[in-house]
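Quick start: read one record
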Amino acid sequence: MLSRTASALYWMGRYLERADFTARLIEATQRLSALPSTYGGAGNAWESALATAWMTDAHAARGLAVDEHNVTEFLTLAADNPSSIRSCLESARNNARSVRTALTEEAWEAINTAWLEIQKFGTHLDSREALGPLLDNVKGWVAAYDGAANRTMLRGDAFWFVNLGAAIERADNTARLLDVKYHLLLPRDESVGGSLDYFQWTTILRTVSALTAYRWVYRDSVKPWLVADLLIINRQMPRSLAACYDEILRHLDLLAMASGKRGPAHRHAATCHARLTSFTIDTLFTAGLHEFLERFIVDNQRLGDAIAEQYLF
């Protein structure tokens, strides 16, 4: 496969995953913002959304207040934000169009429909009432693509590159969501394990559609160390860091078998995977959750760079 084709497929997967995550992040932030400001709601919640999306500086450059309307419009429909949902779907569609023959008709139609439909919302959020249908549609469009791709695409290099990009993006999103929790959401006078702490961890589980999974696995009240166990170590949870790296390593192995060679990306992914599988939740918290997540985010970015150098240039 040509490197430009591999790059378009890889980034198509990343942009679709980012659009879906941003929609879920906004929904979760709406729940947090419903709290009184003295309990970490309102502006603090929208600051956390920008921090999780790595958009704090970009939004500040606009000179607008950090409130629900400005942040939701920036993260959903803003044409000048390259990571807004609208921009992500546009970029995914442009990448898909450039490699149209590598996709099945069903997969292409799902992506193209998403782009055509989101254009109907324009580039400005008219009202708060319009936000819910928009977010529901985004999740539905990405799910429609996932279903079409998984049911119709050959299990070959095109499929592997799309899913490799999605897994890299998913791991990054989960890690940043967890890291922001303790460094922005939790007020200084609120104890770990308090009522607000419980509410925020529950909201994080909802962001990654993991609340029901948590109840099935642990059959316990929401506790920080168990949430971290589910979203970092538990390989049954599709959005956990360990599950993402299972998928990353599997797709890299398949690409290596197809090409007959391995490279730096494989070695780096194997190292990250081994580190994840060596942790227990006790050792992770003893070492420091923030320190672990900070290192993981950097290593995940390095893996993306290694994949780009090995396959996409």
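The mean pLDDT is 89.
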